[in-house]
User: Fold this.
Amino acid sequence: MEEDTKVIDDMTECPYVVGNKITLQLEGRPVQATIVKTFEPWANSCAMVLSFDSNLSALGIEGNVVLKVYDRRFSTEQRTYWKTDPWTPEIERDLYEYLCSDKGIKFAIQHEKFCIKE
Assistant:
């Protein structure tokens, strides 16, 4: 349990900072890139420019790319819209416990069915 707490606490710090490394999966293999620019303030998604650390021309990728990723921890627009508190490790723990419960599993199934209809 203590290890889980440390992992969640470490997630508090934003990984989307210029100079940080990020690992993506491209065609089933891990590829590392460096964040060279971020587009802030973030709303629903975190957007950034990446420079790949290796040559990916064989995959048809040349130069920098833009990555836009949804990360609930930094989704400030949704938190503002729903008038919720900023993300904290405690909120993440509560969410994890809820999603692991019977009630949370039922919610996730209903939500998935709703999304498929859309």
